[in-house]
Write a structure and sequence with these properties.
There is one protein chain. The protein is built from 31 helices and 20 strands. By secondary structure, the protein is of the alpha/beta class. Strands 13-12-11-14-15-16-17-18 form an eight-stranded mixed β-sheet, sandwiched between helices. A seven-stranded mixed β-sheet has the order 1-2-3-4-5-7-10, with helices on both faces. Helix 14 links the parallel strand 11 and strand 12. The structure holds nicotinamide-adenine-dinucleotide.
Amino acid sequence: MDALNIDRVEYRGKFLSVVRLDGGVAEIRLDRQGDALNKLDGAVLAELDPVLERLEADSTLRGVLLGSAKEAFLAGADIQALQDLLGKTPAERSAFCRDMDTVLTRMEDLPVPVVCAINGYALGGGLETALCADYRVMAANAQVGFPEVGLGILPAAGGTVRTPRLAGSTVALEWLSGGRSYKADAALAVGIVDAVAAPAELREAALAWLHRAVAGELDWRARRAQRRGPFALDAAAVAAVRQRAQPLAHDRPAALTITELLERCAPLSRDDAFALEAEVFSVLSGTPAARALVGIFLSSQLLKKKSREQATGARRIARAGVVGAGIMGGGVAYTTAVRGTPVLMKDIAQDALDLGMNEARKLLDKQVGSGRLARDKADAMLASIVPTLDEQAFDSVDIIVEAVVENLKVKQQVFAALEARVRPGTVLASNTSSLAICDIAAPLQRPQDVVGMHFFNPVHMMPLVEIVRSERSSPEAVATTVAYALGMGKIPLVVKDCPGFLVNRILGAYFTAFLQLVRDGVDFVQIDRVMETWGWPMGPAYLIDVAGIDTLEKAMAILGKAYPSVMATDFTTAFQRLAGEKRYGQKTGAGFYRYETDAKGKPRRSSDPKTYELLAEVQPNGPQQLGDEAILDRMMLAMLLEAGRCLDEQVAEGAMEVDAGMRLATGFPAHHGGPLWYADTLGLDQVLRRSASCRHLGGLYEPGEGFRARAAQGQRIFEPTTN
Ligand code: NAD
């Protein structure tokens, strides 16, 4: 927006100013002082209310233009303030909504037309504020949407009331329960905005709409009348949204509640609908899921900030290298190239290089096919991956990711050859999943250049990368690797060099609990059902089949040796029995389940009597019945106690990092926050009590020092001041 004409400023406060324009028009400019963003909170509304009151009483006023003096119109609620609100009583939460309604309705009911200019973005409360205007003009590069459902709540500043009355129930259901952001053309197509303008012409375009309304060319009064009454509900759209929302109900519990709310508020007047919205908000915002999801949002922001700090002092990466063009190496090369860094990819086998390049080509073609990438850009990306059989050119790279076979001797040889070839300071990063980084670096001249960079499969999809800092890794090598991961669009998590690092170590405890349950005769299908009902996208047996029983058997052997009191198994495990029959899971067509390919080419699981025969051989006491709750306890306690031990040993920097790692790499259900958040939800004294009843099962259920000490002092893990 253009510079303020000081002579015409009628009001200037902490959050907004009012400027008088010609023709009886007042312009409200949102402009939070001392902040780059306009946010919606109680303080803004407290300032807006008397401003509106004055405008209401002004008989010379003909129209109001609502806009922003910042780069974006209005980001949603201040999430920190939202977190505080979640801790209040239901009555206080409901009153908060009613207070917002009072102020925003005052704007909606001004005796003159109101036009809103949306620049940058208007999300959540930002869009709800914009919806109070009679007309909205949106900058062509702006975005709007309701992200609240992702936080386990609903748009509580009139979003569920105004959206269906403005754009119809089908659009409202999709927008409110889907949580997506929309571009200007999409918002225009469904009537959420009335016009789109070039960013530089936004204010003038919005003013032109206002002048037309003031001149009576637009029937703004009829529009208002429509927004005050009931709306027609499209039953088919309700059913469709329910069907879509049901399978996601664990992580997005609010989607179904929003759908139900729209059904209930359809026959109501606007003002009755506000009351209902506030009531439902106060219930939703009191759920553990909302607390967990809001906590996750805040911790992701903190994590991003920390990662940027951890990248301080990084060396520039103009070119990267990958050694080993298999599943992982190919994925790393592709993801590097897509993000604009040229990459050299080496293997010892031409076939492997061809396979790696073909995979990259397929992924790029898919993006071109779906219209997300232009053909010439895709070709340039592919051309920036240079396959090679020799390491000559590695003297020109700044970082190398090694992804050859999981064998210490082979990796040491590869690293020695690379060290002799590269410039000092080039980071040598291993993608090992089970070897110690210090062992790989031990024979080298420059162990300070060696770090771990543990990606998850498939590399281009999985957001997390563990950056493993060995005792000898230099701060520059760690910082450079963090920067490289950020440049690939990944979320880096710096972890200690210990067996399994963070994620696989905690998963190791979870799988140990599973193996014990199967040994004790519990049906793996029941275990999967219990864990999937709790919110995991896949139960443990299914997850194990997908990951590969052969790979996991080896990994568990390493973890058992590294953490004997917790993860060693002194019995023949289900993994050993199934692997002995070459039933490795999905890749061999059978593991715990049997797999057949469906019409779309996707593997479908079904139960297999043969599995029960094989498992009977490793169940000394035969099949046993165990209640769902006991199964859930044994699985989840094992996981959260191991997470607690990792916290004690500072495998990751803090509780927030431990939980983020598990969510991002394993599909840990977001609405439970993470293993440590879940421990807090149960209460640490409860965790100790329940684990005491599993103590006969071994060290897996032995709480670490940190849990005991906190429980003794009545503390939580996520104290507001600790993370
Ligand atoms: P893979 O078998 O698919 O690929 C290994 C590649 O390395 C092959 O193409 C092979 O030809 C090549 N290779 C072997 N020796 C080489 C050498 N001396 N120089 C250059 N290339 C050589 O294996 P993968 O699944 O991609 O695993 C690679 C590494 O990543 C392993 O350390 C593994 O533990 C780790 N990892 C794997 C996964 C996974 O899910 N597959 C996940 C995380 C980490």
